Amino acid sequence: MKIFCGRANPTTGSMEWLEEGEDYDYHQEIARSRYADMLHDKDRNVKYYQGIRAAVSRVKERGEKAIVLDIGTGTGLLSMMAASAGADFCYAIEVFKPMANAAVKIVEKNGFSDKIKVINKHSTEVTVGPDGDMQCRANILVTELFDTELIGEGALPTYEHAHRNLVQEGCEAVPHRATVYVQLVESRRMWSWKKLFPVHVEAGDGEKILIPPSEMENCPGVPSVCDIQLNQMPSSDFSTLSDVVTMFSVDFSKPVQSASTYYRVQLEPVKSGKAQIVLSWWDIDMDPLGTINCTMAPYWVKPTSALQWRDHWMQCVYFLPREEPVVQGEKLYLTACRDEYSVWYSLQKAREGENEADGEEHKADVCVESPVCRCRAHLLWNRPRFGELNDQSRTRQYISSLRKVLKTDSVCLCISDGSLLPVLAHYLGAKQVQCMQPSRTDLYHPHDLSNHLEDKIKIIEARPELLKPSHLEDKKISVLVGEPFFTTSLLPWHNLYFWYARTAVSTHLASNVTVLPQSASLHMMIVEFQDLWRIRSPCGTCEGFDVQTMDDMIKDSLNFRESKEAEPHPLWEYPCKSLSDPQEVLTFDFTKTVPQHCLSTEGSVKLLRKGKSHGAVLWMKYHLAADISVSTGLMQMSNEKGNCEWNPHCKQAVYFFSSVIESEILSDPAAVTYTINFDTKTGEIAMDFKL
Ligand code: SAH
Ligand code: ZN
Questions:
Q1: Please, which residues bridge with residue 625 across strands?
Q2: Distance in angstroms (rounded) separating the CA atoms of residues 272 and 659
Q3: Between 3.20.20.70, 2.40.40.20, 3.40.309.10, 2.70.160.11, what CATH number should domain 178-351+367-374 receive?
Q4: What is the biggest distance separating any 2 CA atoms in the chain, rounded to whole angstroms?
Q5: N or C: where does the chain have the smaller number of CB atoms within 10 Å of the terminal CB?
Q6: What does the alpha-carbon distance between residue 567 and residue 32 come to, in Å, rounded to a whole number?
Q7: What is the mean pLDDT of residues 657-680?
Q8: Which atom of ligand 1 approaches the CA of 34 most closely?
Q9: Any atom of ligand 1 within 6 Å of the Cβ of 110
Q10: To the nearest whole number, what is the mean pLDDT of the chain?
Q11: Would you give the DSSP letter of residue 258?
Q12: CA of 377 to the centre of ligand 2 (A)
């Protein structure tokens, strides 16, 4: 079997389909999976174990045999807990073949082969009966099928089917119930992930303001969940307008309905303000009485929550369809609509003299359709990109740099996806502005932002290598600009596609062309992560069970390609401490074309602080003009402790060192040696570090 994997080629900016061996897909899946993170989630594991013990005891007290159904067994962990707790038999269902194989090995290694049957099927394919996968229906249902949104991984249809076909009526369930909580907030920072704010441009002939069209203003956005580490959001970045409210719960021990529905609660704002955002999280009660509770509540609700770091379950940010001014004490209804896999929210004002019992009358106004973007901007710009475009200090830096290089007779070409630069260049007086957006021509046009721009900014639909003099009205480009930003970029250096595009249009550049940015540089720093290290670190034993087979499997998959790869992570969500100074490791000169040969460097970086070297972080800096640079990584570092502030709109590249243990025994002034190689043929960067 051949597998084709889509991947953007950073030298062409377009998607390519690469043929991979049949193992490839699953190695990627394992290497980037959340299994390690789950096994490191002590709070989760301890509470599952307590809940499972309690459920087995309740069944035994009734004098019944304890027959467990574990849907989505993964490593087999929850089944092994059940078997240890005295369950008579466990059916462990796992749809993902490599995991099911691993579960068989792990179960065997831990001596539970006679008590646990691993079944490599989707739960809806499992049969019950004398010749079936299961001899009889189970009386204990154990699962861990939840994502940050609770239901996004299909927990509801899976439970619905299991209650109909695989478990007895009145069965015990671990967890017993889940509850979803919400809080209404106002937050300019989070709202900037959904709305384009007006852009102010101080031009020679007065201030110009770009005001987004009403279609964009009133667009409900996209339905995809926005899940973040809310514990990293400082309280100064939002203001809570309501108390925490229970939105809905699901009892997993009873038949579950997955069909679309809605839930509604009444709210009284504790403060007047602009309702923009619904923050949401859930908890699970492992037992019917709710004495064993595992919660995702953020720090201001539960001060100890930062102690239970996890990445597989975070918190959700939902954007209301539009901003709504609310007054302290007034009556509001918050409605959560859901389908089988996702949730969305809307806010209604109660009518005069209405009380809770009349709430039903609102049924008609309740949104039933999930949000659909009508303005196209939400398809083009994802949430971090909206945030970046709304970053006023960043915009100011581009404006200052453009002002330095643009003249009234400038012929300006902008190469970047969905960029505001063409509009800025036009406002700053460039005579002729054209733009190329290599991967998103179909989606966005600066005209979408204002009709007045229609004849002012021309879109060139050709790819850079196909640019013809006629596209430029037979003129030469005097100013070539880019942010650079391309939607296909995964790692920071993929935006170097700008350099390739610049190379492709070389013959169209005037001899005295200004390229903005004039250059880029790659920066690197060694860090100790507060928590992120867990997602790639071996676990050994988990609650007394030997899960090393899983560790080995992850390691194999990480090493599946001959060299390890860096991976993108938004580090504002994942605090780390710098152990070295930031170091510039490579520079890329955009005033020249991409060279034929590779760009390599090697050297060593001193470890200035004691700590565990978990990995290296890499990011790009763009040098826009003489003393104006923008960083897509480190923004600031407080020197004594090495705490870092990262660009909140970008993902940085993280290269995890293969052995954290080795770096733990590092003593006194040690150094890390590195080799970094930018392959100009592929646009990829390979690296290696020695501790
Ligand atoms: N139970 C393990 C793993 C949880 S991850 C633990 O708690 O550590 C969830 C697993 O469920 C994944 O491996 C996924 O492949 C599997 N899965 C999800 N839905 C499933 C279904 N309906 N049937 C079988 N496996 C499922
Ligand atoms: Zn939209």
A1: 628
A2: 52
A3: 2.70.160.11
A4: 90
A5: N
A6: 9
A7: 75
A8: 5
A9: no
A10: 91
A11: -
A12: 5
- How far away, in angstroms, is 214 Cα from ligand 2 center? 11
For 417-437, what is each residue's pLDDT tens digit?
A: 989 999 999 999 898 999 988
93 lines ligand 1 (CB under 6 A): yes
520-690: CATH number: 2.70.160.11
Rounded to an integer, the average pLDDT of 98-104 is 95
Atom of ligand 1 nearest to the CA of 73: 1
Domain spans of the chain?
A: 3-32, 34-144, 178-351+367-374, 391-516, 520-690
Using CA positions, which residue lies closest to atom 9 of ligand 1? 72
| Residues flanking ion ligand 2, Cβ below 5 Å | 219, 373, 375, 377-378
Q: Determine whether the shortest distance from the Cβ of 172 to ligand 1 is under 6 A.
A: no
* Active site (annotated) includes residue 61: no
Each residue of 136-150: pLDDT tens digit? 999 999 999 999 999
DSSP state letters, 303-359: GGGGGS--SSS-EEEEEEEEEEEE-TT--EEEEEEE-SS-EEEEEEEPPTT--GGGG
Residue 661: its pLDDT value, please? Answer: 44
Does the domain formed by 34-144 have CATH 3.40.50.150?
yes
Q: Average of pLDDT values for 431-451?
A: 73
Q: Could you report the per-residue pLDDT of 621-650, keeping only the tens digit for each?
A: 999 998 999 999 999 887 788 999 999 999
* Residue among 144, 186, 483, 528 flagged as catalytic: 144
Counting every residue written for the chain, the total comes to: 691
pLDDT in tens, 504-549: 999 999 999 999 999 999 999 999 999 999 998 899 999 999 999 9
The band of 105, judged by pLDDT with boundaries at 50, 70 and 90, is very high
Query: Separation of 554 CA from ligand 1 center, angstroms?
Result: 17
**C-alpha distances out from residue 225 to 151, 318, 344, 355, 439, Å:** 11, 7, 9, 32, 24
Which of 96, 106, 166, when mutated, tests ligand 1's pocket best, judged by the most ligand atoms within 8 Å of its CB? 96
Residue that the structure tokens 């108390």 belong to? 243
Distance CA 494, CA 652 (A): 12
Distance CA 225, CA 209 (A): 31
Identical topology for domains 178-351+367-374 and 391-516: no
Domain spanning 391-516, CATH architecture: 3-Layer(aba) Sandwich (3.40)
Question: Residue 371 C-alpha to ligand 2 middle, in angstroms?
Answer: 9
**Nearest ligand, measured from the Cα of 375:** 2
User: What is the whole-number distance in angstroms between the Cα of residue 221 and the centre of ligand 2?
Assistant: 5
Task: Inform me whether the pLDDT recorded for 362 exceeds 70.
Answer: no
What pLDDT does residue 663 have? Answer: 45
Q: What's at 635, amino acid-wise? A: M
CA distance 88 to 507: 76
Residue nearest to ligand 1 atom 11, measured at CA: 72
**pLDDT for the residue 9:** 81
Q: State if residue 145 touches ligand 1 by the CB under 6 angstroms criterion.
A: yes
Q: Would the CB of 107 count as within 6 Å of ligand 1?
A: no
Please tell me which residue in 64, 108, 153, 565 is annotated as part of the active site. 153
- Residue range 452-482, pLDDT digits in tens: 777 788 889 888 999 999 999 999 999 999 9
- Does the annotation count 20 as an active-site position? no
- Tokens at 229, concatenated: 């580490």
Quote the ligand 2 centre to 106 CA distance (angstroms): 47
pLDDT at 39 over 70: yes
Measuring from atom 22 of ligand 1, which residue has the nearest CA?
123
